[in-house]
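User: Here's a chain of 269 residues. Predict its fold as tokens.
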Amino acid sequence: MCEARMKISLTDGLYCIYEFEPKHNHILATSSQVHHLRSQRKITEAQLASVENAKAVGISNKATFDLMAKEAGGVENLGFTREDMKNKLYSKRSLQINHGDTGGVLEYLEKKTSEDGKFFYSIQVDEDDLITNIFWTDSKMVADYEVFGDVVCFDTTYRKLNDGRLFGLLVGVNNHKKTTIFGAALLYDETTESFVWLFNTFLTAMSGKKPQTILTDEDAAMVKAIKIVLPEIHHRICIWHMNQNVCKHLAGVVEDYKKFNKDFQNCII
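Assistant: Prediction complete.
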């Protein structure tokens, strides 16, 4: 730990230095390196707005950073690094997610996948190498899908959560009528593009095996994605969401007839 320090006190309106140690036990940054120090780096809201405007018209972060550095007379005069700019954009985008604003459809340019026989994961990043969508499964989930994967339910109840990314599960039922998980995902948004990526990645993890039936809610983007990736399989609305629709649209009927729910279950099962 460096012992260099200066302590100042305020007495009767006057500042007084009562302790001073000028010697450092490390090499000091040169004038050409000062702009790399954390204390000297800060991106202003005006600069961030310029970056976002450039991104909105298709200019990459690298090109934007190079232009801003040139306008400032060099990187050392800009006040922040390219990594600072990327981190600031990511932090702001994460905040937008938490408040339900996805900022429009992202352009996904890269996918990173790893498989070692025990754990499979796929991470999708955008043109700035920022993570957008994540999917993972393991060998047991893959083995369960091989046996019980004729019917898959994409559980979208994650939409009830308001913090962090959107969480979804691909699940089924085993021979003991117990829920079994085939895979999980953290999604950036609920666009058709994100669902298409998820379903394609899920099929990759499962060696291309497609379910015969998939159960979801009535989300329009998801319906479109299923038609694109899984056009030949049966798509049905799951019972839980059907019950929710009954409670929402037939509340008067349910209140008047106590046996309605039992009769309704006999109709749909």
